[in-house]
Amino acid sequence: MDNSKIKVGFVSLGCSKNLTDTEVMLSLLAKEGYTITPEDIEADVIVVNTCGFIESAKRESIDSILDVAWLKKHRSLKAIIVTGCLAERYREQVMQEMPEVDAVLGIGSESKICEAVEKVLEGKKFEDFEDKEKSPLGGERIVTTPDYTAYLKIAEGCDNRCTYCAIPLIRGKMRSRTIEDIVAEAKDLEKLGIKELNVIAQDTSRYGLDIYGEYKLAALVKALTEQTSIPWIRLLYCYPDKITDELIAEIRDNDRVVKYIDLPIQHISDNVLSAMNRHGRSQMIKDTIAKLRREIPGICIRTTVMVGFPGETEEDFEQLCQFVKDAKFDRLGAFTYSAEEDTPAAEMDGQIDEQTKQDRYDIVMREQLSVTEELNAKFVGTTIKVLCEGFDPVSESYYGRSYRDAPDIDTKVFFTNALGKKRIREGELVNVKITETLDYDLVGKTTD
């Protein structure tokens, strides 16, 4: 069979960590000569790389599979392959309950994507579930993010065992890649022209403990900056109980590490934190935030919080709301608790009804909007560096992100260019003077 005549499409769902898995599978298929198509209606085979973290993500994954199944009836699609977290978590059920699916690969078997494509094109059903904790870490990728930005996954799995989270069940124990392996991949990304490297893992701050016996994120960041010239390095998913003095110093003193940290706290009530099995309590969280702000002037702190966890009282929730007001996080995302099967929290007493969860979510986000408007107002009249992401013809302005904005999850800076100035390219870093605010976003004009 001439593989070049076979068109393979992908639907990648869920987090950035899942996206890097998709990019590895794309590379494996391309090496075997398959044609990768971005057009679903042209595909002979579609791979749906699913998420199964929370209930809404599972629903999205199932809906996406069913949407793709329509192409088998009405277009040229011959087969559907399901990979990712949903495939790993519901091994037998996927094919049993969705006969439209032709192959299922668990987390440990994604390296067999080419074999799966070959089998389904022969009209055979295919399932494979290798040991996820022995699967390869990293691998060559076809980067699907814009040319100027990429994710760099430094570890797989998680050891934290939060009571609400199914990730250790799905992805297994934490396994770090070596510094040498990660740096080699960063060099490859640099050759592609990447301007922003987003360092990710389930718990980035725990990096290295399993293979080096100590936290090594600071050493990794130093190696990345010493051995590449990528101008922006951003740290995501750092847990507050693992923020070392060495890491703080590296962020503070290294000009190429953006002064930004993603610090998921989930809650501030000690009662809730204990029930969640989070490592550390409210005072530790407050001390860590204070230290980051004291040691790294201008640092942007992003966090996430969960509302409606089993047993969360009105007092617990009020404590969280007050902390959101007081802490003044630069970026904050909230989500409602989702009872995930096979997790301890799903069996806890005091489950909270969906309407109460939604009401609490709405209250937290209203509080954060007030905080954001207050913080954004302080930027009016200042000049910040912005990574241009494109031009919006409707508003007739460029848009991009400052060091304070991670891709996909944070806000934007909209800006115009002075008359007579050259066109700004995507991925170009420009200086923008902020003139006004727009809800969560900033508006300005270039000074270059």
Could you please describe the fold and organization of this structure?
The chain is α/β, with parallel strands linked by helices. Helix 7 packs parallel to helix 9 and helix 13 packs parallel to helix 14. Strand 1 (7-12), helix 1 (16-31) and strand 2 (35-36) form a beta-alpha-beta unit. It has helices at 16-31, 55-74, 85-89, 91-97, 113-121, 167-171, 179-191, 209-212, 217-227, 245-253, 270-276, 282-295, 314-327, 354-377; strands spanning 7-12, 35-36, 45-50, 79-84, 103-105, 126-128, 149-153, 155-156, 175-176, 196-200, 232-235, 257-262, 300-307, 331-336, 383-392, 397-402, 413-416, 429-438, 441-446. Helices cover 35% and strands 22% of the residues. A six-stranded parallel beta sheet has the order 2-1-3-4-5-6, sandwiched between helices. A six-stranded parallel beta sheet has the order 7-10-11-12-13-14. The chain starts with 6 loop residues before the first strand and ends with a strand. The chain folds into four domains: 3-133, 3-Layer(aba) Sandwich (Rossmann fold); 145-243, Transcription Regulator spoIIAA (2-Layer Sandwich); 263-377, Transcription Regulator spoIIAA, CATH 3.30.750.200; 383-446, Nucleic acid-binding proteins (OB fold (Dihydrolipoamide Acetyltransferase, E2P), Beta Barrel).
Count of runs of 4 or more consecutive helical residues:
14
Strand tally, please? 19
Mean pLDDT: 94
**CATH architecture classification of the largest domain:** 3-Layer(aba) Sandwich
Task: Report the top-level CATH class of the largest domain.
Answer: Alpha Beta
Low-confidence residue ranges: none
The major pleated sheet works out as: 6 strands, parallel
